[in-house]
Amino acid sequence: MPGQLSVSEAVAGILARKDAIRQERLSGLHNPWGHAIGFTDPWTFLSICESDAVVDEARSVLGPDIILWDSELFTEARKYTDFLREKKEGRYWPVTPLAGAIVVLGVGGADPRPKAISLNDVHESVLDRHDPLDPIYVIRLLPGTSHFDRNPLHPAHRACMEEQVLINYANRPLWLLSGADRTNNDLVTGFSLAAPAWASGGLAAEKGGET
User: Where in the chain are the domains?
Assistant: First the structure.
């Protein structure tokens, strides 16, 4: 994208404001139609998620069919360690059957190296090679053989609404990064903004004035 920030620039901009940004706002950082557009360049993070390095690393765990559904920046690796210690990774995944992988990148330097870990193998030690104070970027992926449930009554959505109140995974867009979607996932929702009520109301009023 023209004018796209480098990874180091984008991360530095967030770190400079980290005390003013709640952790929940750093979820969905790759989504150009999400709230992250207000404080960073989501296209930079989407480029990371779609990069050959990340996709190739993810294939080693998930196989050929890969769907991106979330990513999150942790301004300090130790914050993600706490997240893992509290058994939260996987708790908010509205995925059936529950399967997937995370890809972790240390993004404090100029050349982040991705590491993919199966959701079944995620534990605190995955961050052993990272400085606890360095920022890390966590990319959440599901295999094309699993279904992303958008029903807000799904237990994962309900848990998320109670414990991470600023996050709504039900309307997140999904990206097919590799292979095929094998379970008829909704790959349309989330890619366009709904028209605000005042806009549609104004249009109706204008049409009414013409008749």
Answer: 7-210
State if pTM tops 0.85. Answer: yes
* Residues near 144 by beta carbon (within 8 Å), at least 6 away in sequence: 64, 65, 66, 67, 176, 179, 180, 181, 182, 183, 185
Mean pLDDT over residues 87-105, rounded?
Answer: 97
At residue 41, what are phi and psi to the nearest 5 degrees?
A: -105, 100
Separation of alpha carbons 13 and 73, rounded Å: 12
Predicted pLDDT at 208: 41
150: tokens are 């958008």
Beta carbons within 8 Å of 162's beta carbon, 6+ residues apart: none
Which tokens hold the place of 54? 């990340």
Q: Is 172 exposed, middle or buried (0-12, 13-18, 19+ CB in 10 A)?
A: buried
What is the C-alpha separation between 127 and 195, in angstroms, rounded? 42
Q: What is the pLDDT of residue 193?
A: 59
Q: Residue 111's pLDDT is what?
A: 66
- pLDDT value at 98 more than 50: yes
Pairing of strands 101-106, 136-143: antiparallel
